[in-house]
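Schema walkthrough. Field components (list of strings):
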Amino acid sequence: ETGVTQTPRHLVMGMTNKKSLKCEQHLGHNAMYWYKQSAKKPLELMFVYNFKEQTENNSVPSRFSPECPNSSHLFLHLHTLQPEDSALYLCASSLRPGLAGGYNEQFFGPGTRLTVL
Amino acid sequence: AQSVTQLDSQVPVFEEAPVELRCNYSSSVSVYLFWYVQYPNQGLQLLLKYLSGSTLVESINGFEAEFNKSQTSFHLRKPSVHISDTAEYFCAVSGRGGSEKLVFGKGTKLTVNP
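Field assembly_structure (string):
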């Protein structure tokens, strides 16, 4: 595997289910990100991890719970979601901003298309 | 803080026609600028970036963008598009502080018709 991978690619869940999204990066990066992509809206940054430590939580509801066990893996645990949470969830990674010459080039995975019924 | 405006949500063009996708940004500090492309059912891929130096930057597949500081713009152009250029294009900006996050525009859906 190369780059950034995400599983599953598609997920349908009910509002009472618990599920997890997985992201893995094979680029030697140390920062990882979760984004939400909804139709006709800009990408919404949800969470940022630098060296496994959460450095940003962009006012995300607690029904989304991230986990970063190491610099290569990132999870997003989902529970009691709402239909408006249906979206494409994108994971990205980069070298820690400030270490790569000062700019933040992020590499994205293919995303998980989530549908909440 | 930064913001990005992509005025055109959809741009339809015919194959081999020129195209310009507009991007304007606002920022109180100096910035880095990026264009990402998203093909159907895929994640975002970096198309090109402006960091410093020449204000005209080019990608390997014929796209170019010009940083215009006075107009706070970073428009993306291609002189002759192909069907395979059909995708959504996102402009993004980050501050030069080094630890600042990327801020994306809403995207422009480019559709190239035969």
